[in-house]
Amino acid sequence: MGKNIAEKIFAAHLRDEPFPGAKVLDIDRVLCHEITTPVAIADLVWRGKDRVFDPTKIKAVIDHVTPAKDSKTATQAKILRDWARRHDITDFFDVGRNGVCHALFPEKGYIRPGFTVIMGDSHTCTHGAFGAFAAGVGTTDLEVGILKGVCAFREPKTIRINLTGTLQPGVYAKDVILFVIGQIGVNGATDRVIEFRGTVVDEMTMDSRMTLCNMAIEAGGTSGICLPDATTVDYLWPFIEGEYSSREAALEEFRKWHSDEDAEYEKVLDFDISNLEPQVTFGYKPDCVKAARDFERTPVDQIYIGTCTNGRLEDLRVAAEILKGRRIADNVRGIVSPATPKIFSDAMAEGIMQIFMDAGFCVTNPTCGACLGMSNGVLAEGEVCASTSNRNFNGRMGKGGMVHLMSPATAAATAITGVITDARTL
Amino acid sequence: MKKTFGGAALFLDRSDINTDEIIPAKYLTEVTKEALKPHCLEDLKLEGFDPKGEALRKARVVVSRQNFGCGSSREHAPWVFEVNDIHTIIAESYARIFRQNMFNGGMLAIELPREQIDRLFSMAGQGEVEILVDLSGSAITARCGDKVETYPFDISPFDRALVESGGWVEFADARY
User: Fold this and answer.
1) pLDDT tens per residue, range A393-425
2) Among partner residues B26, B30, B96, which is closest to A373 by beta-carbon distance?
3) Is ipTM beyond 0.90?
4) Is B148 on the interface with A (CB under 8 A)?
5) Closest alpha carbon to A174 in A341, A340, A379, A319
6) Does residue B94 belong to any structural domain of this protein?
7) I need a surface site. Which of A80, A103, A396, B124 has the fewest CB within 10 A?
8) Domain A281-425 has CATH 3.30.499.10
């Protein structure tokens, strides 16, 4: 019997099986940010074990609240900063070089096919776009990862989702993943890996695949995962060209991770998405999804474009294309937060940031900020936000606030009209 | 250090209670567990539940429905229970990260079938419920007045080892 990609990665990284079904894996990347890492650091210090297993495999960034907004967030940043210095963690990204972790770390070429990746952040599943097993974990798992370079998981079961057909113009990876979550539910992939396959995934850019995998956790998934292909190699090439004689050679090497033809899956789901329309959430769970067109005049107060889901260059381009030559509605506030300094800089070079500013958007520095109600666009009681982020939980962007999740295109169109709008109808 | 389990039960009758409801993100800037204490379940809107109420203050066990603890990976969610002396959650199912975080911290996330969860909820309709946990015997006993019901639960050898060793850091540190 063949193996699927997650099973291959597990087999290649298995350090120990202390009890049947409990797999302790060697971890290739332990990623850290300033919200969940400081408590792990404090506990290691308290235990007299302030060590790291391998400083080259640990990457750290201050991203959730940056620059610090108050003494508490300044202290969290300082704990991470001091720790990185103390342990020679050279891949540490501070103010001026920092961005949203799940956009920044891939952009630096840190994530490779076949890797195991953990981070104290649920959206770590994003990195599965590169053919890695990437899982969000709590602070205790993170702490052991930092100290020992291992993490325990139950034997993985995989749900394979075949996405076939052709995406219509104006429909994006965000619409696909919202649709999938709507179909399988917030509990549909709990403790499972979601392997995204099919022509739609094959044709996606890495930015789009990251959007797709980013929201696997919203269906309960441990990791989203895509098979590495020529698109993956092209993205990674600047970082790996010294390691392979050619792109073809790299691709050949990465193919070893591909799921075998006769691999087993717990479930295989087929979705032909040729007729898919732009999707938007309602209510307070990400599986409450319907077509943007089916919203009857739903006014919003704020538009938020950014985050680890949709703050990449491709996303900003799509939104700018719609905003070009237009102004946002008088009664809304627009906020755009490019996910990394490189994305910000590239977007400026392309004139995209000027389009946002001319349209009336406020441009913020790269940070997670408003997505989780921390800074840079927190909602007041009763306010509604059209957001390109990944969670619409009650109070997520501010106590008493309401969030509608959507693609950058739908968010841009909504900014112009002030009500939830399918960009294709503008 | 091994924890104690069981006591007065708080019933939260809804599926998909997420970690933002258990501890809102704005409190994640705290760097001690103790500072989280007053904010347990602060953003949970549920009929009959008061985050400042007596039922939560007295609770040592939480009983809920499906997919408990979904959403963010924040271990602050188990921590806010821990500092409120709630070391046992009983639900029909859990989000993976929350469940792992509970056991990693040496606490119990017990899964029971729907029929038994239903029975616990119906018991709660009749008065205050106390739930005792027999870890070595893998069973819980719920008492409400003179009504007593006992249910066995499954716990994997690995999860049991985490609880008995006091958590994943102790276990991993001794072994790797």
Assistant:
1) 999 999 999 999 999 999 999 999 999 999 999
2) B26
3) yes
4) no
5) A319
6) yes
7) B124
8) yes
